[in-house]
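Researcher: Structure for this, please.
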Amino acid sequence: MERPSLEINLPNTPEEGKLYVVDSLNNLNKLNVCPDESQHVLEYMAWSNIRNQCLFFVTLILTLIVSLVLVSFVIFLIIQTRNKMDQLSSRLIFEKKIIEELKKMNNMILNFDLEKESCLLSVKRTTDSLLLLI
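Model: Predicted structure, token format:
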């Protein structure tokens, strides 16, 4: 279906009549293009569009805030883990030193026992030799 052209030739109409006709055509066009119900729909769509934009920006800001909180939490966890690892490392180094000292003490005790046994053996030999002489 073709739309009728809005151009109308009015060659014999005076100037005031032409203005009246153009004004009437404008009013008719407004009625056909945008009735009252449609005007409300257009206003609702405009507010809906603005509301959607505001909702988008609020969602974007909330997403950025949540991302910032999560990144801060991850950084906190990394720092805590590093501190725990430092504590564990220093504890292991301390325990290693203690183990080394215990090894040295054990070696000293073993050496002392060996010397004591050898001394006892030598005393026993000496006493045995003396007893044989008597």
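Researcher: Any notable elements?
Model: The two ends are 150 Å apart (CA to CA). The chain is about 85% helix and 0% strand.
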